[in-house]
Amino acid sequence: MKLNHLNLTVSDVTATIDFLVKYFGLQNGNTRGNTFAVFFDDGGLVLTLMKGKQVSYPNTFHIGFIQESEDRVNEINQRMKDDGFDVEPPQRSHAWTFYVRAPGGFTVEVLC
């Protein structure tokens, strides 16, 4: 069995689209303004975004993007810092990792 679909409710679909495409290379499949979007990754995952009036995820909820190297994690971290995101430097935990609050109201882990 393979998980192949995930839907996230977000406060701003357009800003979330820009974030996911810019930093993680997701391919945008279809959008309906600032209300709905479908994305695909190169592994077959389908990620949908739906605009919600109230977005509230538990503190521990997050999605993760595994990278091929520590250098790639560092590069994404620096790009996000340069673009004004409030990110701490990567650290050694269960992996070389950092977390960032994505536009739309959810947390993303970047790791290798």
Automatic annotation (TrEMBL):
<dbReference type="InterPro" id="IPR004360">
    <property type="entry name" value="Glyas_Fos-R_dOase_dom"/>
</dbReference>
<feature type="domain" description="VOC">
    <location>
        <begin position="2"/>
        <end position="112"/>
    </location>
</feature>
<dbReference type="InterPro" id="IPR051332">
    <property type="entry name" value="Fosfomycin_Res_Enzymes"/>
</dbReference>
<dbReference type="InterPro" id="IPR037523">
    <property type="entry name" value="VOC_core"/>
</dbReference>
<dbReference type="InterPro" id="IPR029068">
    <property type="entry name" value="Glyas_Bleomycin-R_OHBP_Dase"/>
</dbReference>
<protein>
    <submittedName>
        <fullName>VOC family protein</fullName>
    </submittedName>
</protein>
<dbReference type="Pfam" id="PF00903">
    <property type="entry name" value="Glyoxalase"/>
</dbReference>
